[in-house]
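Morning!

As promised:
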Amino acid sequence: MSALFPLRVSGAKSSRRGNVLVGPVDLELSGAGTTVVIGPNGSGKTSLLAMLHGTNRLNAGRIDWAVPQDQARAQQAFVFQRPILLRRSVIQNIAYPLLMRGMTRKTALNRATEWSERVGLGAMLDRPAQSLSGGEQQKLALARAMICDPQLLFLDEPCAALDGRATREIEAILQSVAASGTDLIMTTHDLGQAQRLAQDVVFMLHGKVHECTSAKEFFTAPKTNAARAFLRGDIVE
Amino acid sequence: MADLWGGLVQAFWLIVTFDADLFEITLRSLYVTLTALVIACLIALPLASLLAVKRFRWRRTVIGVLNALMGLPPVVVGLIVYVLLSRSGPFGVFGLLFTPTAMIIAQVIIIVPLVASIAHQSLRELWTDYHDLLISLNVTQAQKMRTLLWDARRALLTAALAGFGRGIGEVGAIMIVGGNIDHATRVLTTAIALETGRGDFALALGLGFVLIALAVAVNLMIHGLSRTEVEGRW
């Protein structure tokens, strides 16, 4: 467990031009290992992650990490549903966060090489990032997020557009990342993935946290009707 | 037709005989426009990236004005620079009127809005791609601007070439502030205007063909150097 937790969220709300994206959210996360946020499309999963990370504006309420806000922010990284690739080579993409933090070019490129090998991109360092396949692009995004050794990694549907094999490879990386002590908060709409990875589950519906328990409890004995319906595979609206 | 043919022949002879006057005014054309272009890019590119990443109150107005100024009439720019630089004007003490420096100043004013507008257009698109990532990485404003400028460099080249095109073919402003003085401020465009006025169509056309060849050559050279269309999409 990292120094960022426990995380206390009280009455947090994020909106844009009058539309409430998510909230008000009350949540307490101990942050042990992997927390999976699930829920139907449009239930505010992505907005919740962005709000916790601090990229979506917090319009009301509080988000309190165990350390001051800017310290917490520096210890986090975010992987987006559609990987955002810089118009640069693979290695330049992975090294970018280090370079922005003022590390020398040589050290940064060395560490980027290490990370690219860890995620299985070692053979394509000088390829333009845009030429990678979907799975490779997401691996690049993961390596780039992990290169600053964050204590907490947010992942927004990291496997949404990937096939089984790419999903398995990404999950293997995520498990090794989690094993090395980085906490994960990720969204998914794939229940199988949630069961494979989650220690805790946050169930979202209509922009609010509907249920927040340990994964074991959630998958065996969900408390609310909506969660039961969602687990059964019914369409929850 | 005879005039056109005569112009081509004249252009050919001017070039193969290394006509001293021709080379002098061609070099001056290049000197004035390239210097103006470099200065304009140093102003316009940071401005364009700032407008892309920074949200401030008058941002949309500034962008609108820049776009409108793309069509700034060179003659009017020349007139205003003339008034400012003339003996009785506020900058008269520098004695810049009728010098290549005055021509450069006028061209900078003409080129900046064009380069800034075109550059801003492509930087804005890149910024919408990069926005979430760079916000998440918490990089500084200056780092955002540098990242955008570097990653959009091919598109910025197009902006610079457009600026070059506007500068090298421009006659209204440099005629007024330069005065078309032989061996001092005469450039290709003002020489063409002069020769046309004097009725020497062959020479004017010859100079015109040299001007076109020059513009094409510079564009091709920059494309070659930057390897556009050879490497990846950017």
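The first helix of chain A runs from residue 45 to 53.

Hope this helps with the figure draft.
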